[in-house]
Amino acid sequence: MLKSILTSPVSKYLSSTVKSKANSAVQDQEALMHSLVFQAKETEFGKDHRFDKIKNYEDFKHQVPVKDYEQLRPYFNRVVKNEANILWPGIPKYFAKTSGTTSGVKYIPITKQSMPHHIDTARDALFNFMSKSGSNKIMNGKLIFLSGSPVLSTEGTIATGRLSGIVNHEVPSWLQKNYVPSFETNCIEPWEAKVEKIVEETAAHDLRLISGIPPWVQMYFEKLLDYTGKSTIKDIFPNFNLFIFGGVDYEPYRAKLDALIGERIHTLETYPASEGFFAFQDQVVHEGLLLQTSNGIFYEFVPVEEIFNESPTRLKMSEIELGVNYAIILNTDAGLWGYNIGDTVKFVSKKPYRLIVTGRVKHFISAFGEHVIAKEVETAMIETCKQFAASIVEFTVAPNVNPKDGQLPYHEWFVEFEKAPENLPDFEAVLDKNMVEQNIYYEDLISGGILRPLEIRSLKKSAFRKYMDSIGKLGGQNKVPRLSNDRKIANILDNLNV
């Protein structure tokens, strides 16, 4: 009770600060660009790109090219060797280690300047939500964060690990008594063994908040119900009131999670990454996530169809248009410059600047020029499941360019149903209709006889868990790509489904 009383004025203050920053977003971004350039002008990157000549955004675009990790690797390699003053003054505090599909292992620097932004933005998201929803009693109970292992290695003298594991070392003292599971349990590497231990450790607690990726939280809930013999999560945790998630669309999982919980509870969507904490849901009922514009990141946006051009159009935040699909480009106080993170976003509001995440630059299907993105397949699936009272565990989509039956190519949807539709062919037909409504190019290919309507491959139970386990990415913050332009994932799922 005491904590909720104490946190009430704090949550109101932080909520007003969130609103104030949203109102000064354009000015803050302009000032931040100049501040970042000034701080880094004596670094190797700053000298190589003549930061001393940058007076305005036009100069910035001229001096700082858009590049991805692979193109910036010579600089990153020097930072990993612990050379100082390469991309940012000094050396990083941490490396967030990630694995990419094209660049292999990546080491994303986190500096003493950038690390607090990860923690403070998460705090602001939570306290703003508590203020807006009147849910301060959350702080009277336990909070669980399903994360990667906090065990860190070193690159030279720099602690290195997954971002979610690094954050375990930065949990503020005021939160530590509420935080579960224990550090020792979080260190367990095999995901299924870790979840079983978390279940044992948390089943008797007064859990009020959980944060994690929806499919892995679902796995935790299912094991909790098996362990306790209860019917719903609310029977175990009657005060459970908030689910925080990020990185995936929650809607495909909502029906199943609502059923496991026993009722619909509050959800809070966030947009964090190793490179920074970009946005969060700032309203209880919302469309779009509030872009964080004063947390050490100067953002740029490139129309997604131009991202692989030699000289793409680059826009600062104040120049964006609503409803356009952009690749997001970062310049940060961790030393990322003109950095193409690989995500695509679309703004839904300018007052304040709110966006939705639409997918990944490299996660799309365009085998025939259709350029289908993740948001489109997710929306089509959600609408179709509503119409048929069906629910899914997970799905992904791949092109079938050369079908064995010799007929027209098509998009193949690999779907693990939680509750399958009674009539799968009808479900397929409606799903295809919904896809036609989502993407005009797909519509043209279907009506023009270039593609035939999509087909669904219904997968066996736990197929996607087995897939993620087979590639060493079971649990933590790992996500199944919604779609791909090749058959790599499809072929593995084919073999697992035999």
Describe the model.
By secondary structure, the protein is of the alpha/beta class. The protein folds into two domains: 1-361, Rossmann fold (3-Layer(aba) Sandwich), CATH 3.40.50; 374-496, 2-Layer Sandwich (GMP Synthetase, Chain A, domain 3), CATH 3.30.300. It contains 18 helices and 19 strands. The strands form three sheets. A twelve-stranded mixed β-sheet has the order 6-3-7-8-9-10-11-16-15-14-12-13. Strands 2-1-5-4 form a four-stranded mixed β-sheet. Helix 1 (2-23) packs across helix 6 (115-133) and helix 15 (424-438) crosses helix 16 (440-447). The termini are far apart. The relative contact order is 0.11.
Largest sheet: 12 strands, mixed
- Note the total helix count: 18
Order of adjacent strands in the largest pleated sheet:
6-3-7-8-9-10-11-16-15-14-12-13
Supply the number of structural domains.
2
Approximate shape: globular
User: Which structural class do you get from the secondary structure elements?
Assistant: alpha/beta
What is the CATH C level class of the largest domain, in words?
Answer: Alpha Beta
The overall pLDDT average reads 91
List keywords for this structure.
498 residues; alpha/beta; Rossmann fold; GMP Synthetase, Chain A, domain 3; 2 domains; 18 helices; 23% strand
Q: What order do the helices and strands come in, and which of them pair?
A:
Elements lengths: L1 H22 L1 H16 L3 H5 L8 H7 L5 H12 L13 E7 L3 E7 L4 H19 L8 E4 L7 E3 L2 E4 L1 H6 L4 H4 L2 E2 L2 H4 L4 H12 L4 E5 L2 H15 L4 H4 L5 E5 L4 H11 L4 E8 L2 E5 L8 E3 L5 E7 L11 E2 L8 E8 L6 E12 L2 E8 L13 H15 L2 E10 L9 E10 L4 H15 L1 H8 L7 E4 L4 H8 L17 H9 L2
Parallel strand pairs: 1-5, 3-6, 3-7, 7-8, 8-9, 18-19
Antiparallel strand pairs: 1-2, 4-5, 9-10, 10-11, 11-16, 12-13, 12-14, 14-15, 15-16, 17-18
Helix pairs in contact: 1-6, 10-11, 11-13, 14-15, 15-16, 17-18
